[in-house]
Structures are given as C-alpha cells and as structure tokens.
C-alpha cells in the first residue's frame, strides 16, 4: 500500500509545482517527509534509507507529474487531486498511529505521531518552497538568513 500512497502524494505535489526540479523535490518532501519527521521524533532509524526505491519512486513521479497539464475547463481534476491527497495523508496518518502506539503505548504520542506523519511532509514542502521562492524573488538581500 505504501507505494500507491507515495505515488498519489508525489503526483499531487509534482502536479502543482512550477518546474520539474521543484516537482521532484516537492514530491519527495510531501510523500516521505512526514515519515522522516516521525522517525526523527521517535529516535528511530529512518525507514526511507532502508527503502531507497521509495525515494526514487517519489522523485520520478513528481518529475513526470510536473509536466502533466489538463485543460483549464476541467476543474474536477483539482478536486480529484485534493481528495486523493487527503485520502493518502489520512492513510499514512493511520499507519503512523499504529506504529507509534506499538512503540510507545502512549495515546498522546500516538496522536502526535499520526498528525506529524500526515501533515509533516506538506509542512516541509511549504516551508522550503516559501524559502526558495523568497530567495528567488529577493533582489536586494533583504531575505538573508
């Protein structure tokens, strides 16, 4: 089930990207970032390092999806992508909750692990994307860190 969920999240992230490079980066961040954040928070080894095919799958899907464009009059495509993205995020959140509960036996940690996994990748992509866009639009150095 993980490969299907990764493809869905990577496709939606890549589809909304403005360049193929950012499509690949956003796809990896969105589809794998939440799990990485969860593993770091729990002090576990990063599962994505043991499964490099998922990293390749996410990057390739995002790269290909960033070149896909539907006609402007098909508003249902955006709604379909939104629903698929939501469903995949929820599925990852549920599986993360099960994993977190099995490790901690703590309901609060389980809830946090679920939310972190379900929304962490999108948060990372938004944070990094905003930083990259602000640096690209900065002409006078006002956004220096």
Structural account:
The chain contains six helices and no strands. With 145 residues, it is mainly α. Helix 1 packs parallel to helix 4 (52-65).
* Main sheet makeup: none
Mean pLDDT across residues:
88
Count every beta strand, where a strand is a DSSP E run of 2 or more residues: 0
Number of helices: 6
Which oligomeric form is depicted? Answer: single chain
| SS strand fraction | under 5%
Order of helices and strands: HHHHHH
Shape: globular
Radius of gyration over all CA atoms, rounded:
16 Å
Helix content: over 70%
- Uncertain runs: none
By helix and strand content, what is the structural category?
mainly alpha
Ends distance? 40 Å
Key features?
0% strand, mainly alpha, 145 residues
Short characterization:
Helix content is 81%, strand content 0%. It has 145 residues and is an all-alpha fold. The model has no long low-confidence stretch (mean pLDDT 88).
């Amino acid at each position: 089930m993980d490969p299907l969920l990764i493809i869905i999240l990577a496709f939606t992230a890549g589809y909304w990207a403005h360049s193929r490079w950012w499509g690949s980066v956003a796809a990896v961040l969105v589809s794998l970032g939440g799990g990485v954040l969860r593993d770091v928070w729990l002090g576990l080894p990063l599962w994505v390092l043991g499964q490099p095919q998922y990293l390749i799958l996410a990057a390739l899907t995002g790269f290909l999806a960033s070149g896909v464009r539907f006609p402007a009059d098909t508003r249902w495509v955006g709604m379909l992508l939104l629903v698929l993205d939501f469903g995949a995020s929820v599925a990852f959140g549920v599986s993360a909750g099960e994993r977190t509960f099995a490790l901690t036996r703590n309901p609060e940690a389980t809830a946090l692990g679920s939310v972190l996994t379900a929304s962490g990748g999108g948060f990372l992509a938004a944070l990094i994307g905003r930083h990259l866009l602000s640096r690209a639009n900065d002409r006078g150095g006002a956004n220096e860190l």
